[in-house]
Amino acid sequence: MIQSRGLRFAYPGAEPLCFADVSVAQGGTLLLRGPSGSGKSTWLALASGLLTPTEGEVVVGGQSVGVLAAAARDAWRARHIGFLPQKLHLSEALSVTDNLGLVFFAAGLPQDKAAVAHALQALDLAPLAARKPAQLSGGQAQRVALARALLLRPSVILADEPTASLDDAACAAAVDLLRGCASELNATLVIATHDARVVQALPQASVLAFDIAVPVAA
Ligand code: ADP
Ligand code: MG
């Protein structure tokens, strides 16, 4: 589950962003909805410990993220968070399979070839395993990034604008895939989006509406 209380973050020299409190049960879905620049990516960075709150806290799976020291935070993130970033950051020099293998390297774990094969299969990527990112369509590359995010079976999946460049059919497929993967892992799913199609596709989700939450004076 994810809970935040009095969460604020200020970039140097800027007014603080102030985030409304949220509480999402384990396995639930939270939409961060709001226009560009309203703070959605910042919220995801706070929930994954890439940024430390200026005030307040966010508790993810019982762990208050901001109190962890840097090294412990990296280990915690690798173990618990599956992050689907807006820019996918696939390594262009490596095949799809080797991009997935990097996850184990980064987490200091031995390579798990069976887990990679399972993820390729589950996301319909097995025929593309030997390709380099430049040889993939946008939707295929995103599925590789999602496979990478899910490899260590995270308890939380964070997706930043996952449908921004997708047509209606691909958008629906991406939302279904995210929701389906989260269900299989009983992971809590957080999607940052300004895409009305995503909001419509997930009527059961909790919504944190950024358009009314930020910014505030200190
Ligand atoms: P969103 O994801 O909703 O588009 P962001 O969280 O990226 O919003 O940004 C929220 C606000 O913080 C914006 O005004 C943005 O310009 C600012 N911001 C984002 N990243 C930085 C940064 N690294 N340094 C300073 N300001 C930033
Ligand atoms: Mg953003």
CATH topology: Rossmann fold
Give the topology string: H per helix, E per strand.
EEEEHEEHEHHHEHEHE
Number of strands: 10
Arithmetic mean of pLDDT = 92
Q: How would you sum up the global shape?
A: globular
Low-confidence stretches: 212-218
Describe this structure in words.
- By secondary structure, the protein is of the alpha/beta class.
- It has a single domain, classed as P-loop containing nucleotide triphosphate hydrolases (Rossmann fold, 3-Layer(aba) Sandwich), CATH 3.40.50.300.
- It is 35% helix and 20% strand.
- The chain has helices at residues 40-47, 70-80, 96-106, 113-122, 138-150, 168-185, 196-201, and strands at 2-9, 17-18, 23-24, 29-33, 55-60, 63-64, 81-84, 156-160, 188-193, 206-209.
- The strands form 2 sheets. Strands 1, 2, 3, 5 and 6 form a 5-stranded antiparallel sheet that branches. A 5-stranded parallel sheet has the order 7-8-9-4-10, with helices on both faces.
- Helix 3 runs parallel beside helix 5 (138-150) and helix 4 (113-122) crosses helix 5.
- The longest helix is centred in the C-terminal third of the chain and has 18 residues, at 168-185.
- It starts with a strand and ends in a 9-residue tail after the last strand.
- Mean pLDDT is 92; it is low at 212-218.
What's the helix and strand layout?
Blueprint: E1 2-9, E2 17-18, E3 23-24, E4 29-33, H1 40-47, E5 55-60, E6 63-64, H2 70-80, E7 81-84, H3 96-106, H4 113-122, H5 138-150, E8 156-160, H6 168-185, E9 188-193, H7 196-201, E10 206-209
Parallel strand pairs: 4-9, 4-10, 7-8, 8-9
Antiparallel strand pairs: 1-2, 1-3, 1-5, 5-6
Helix pairs in contact: 3-5, 4-5, 5-6
Magnesium ion binds next to α1.
